[in-house]
Automatic annotation (TrEMBL):
Protein name per Swiss-Prot or TrEMBL: DksA C4-type domain-containing protein
Lineage: Bacteria, Pseudomonadati, Bacteroidota, Saprospiria, Saprospirales
Compositional bias ranges of the Basic residues kind: 159-171
Keyword Metal-binding: no
Residue segments, region Disordered: 137-181
Keywords from the named record: Coiled coil
Any coiled-coil regions, as ranges: 13-79
Keyword Coiled coil tagged: yes
Amino acid sequence: MERYSEKELAQFAERIKSDYQLAKTELQMLRDQVTELNDTMSEGFGADMGEDSSSVSRLELLKEQVLRKRDHIQDLQNAMLRIKNKVYGVCSVTGNLIDKQRLDAVPTTIKSLEGMRLEASGQLDITAQDIARRAIERREGPNKIISKIKKPPPPPRKVEKKRKKPGRKPRKVEEDDDDLI
């Protein structure tokens, strides 16, 4: 399998580390903005409906940005893991090297343009068996098959017999001959 050299992987790692630090700083700024907006909203909420609705909308937007930034940070961490395992820059669909220009533009990508086209066109329907077969062929990195490790069977469950709870029997209502009406 074709791979990038150690020197090239080191260059990619430097870029990803700087992007990671920047993303962490931006995430903290966004969280601070959310906290500040929550504090200001709680002080005078309900006084002006127009202002309240814009504050709520802004808060939702900020929370969405926080989620996206967290996902981006996770993608950067995954990219560093792929660099560590020396599979960074290898397309997860085709197994070929991803173009350097694409990796410079989107350092967290795991698919080449060809792989994306194949998936989008429907020509390539990846099944779990295909993924397992490819992982066995590669025998490396985060795609290593772990399912071959036999897990011990779960301990047998104790079946407890359910006891019937003593309940009250419905009382028979005796009809009175006395008419109160």
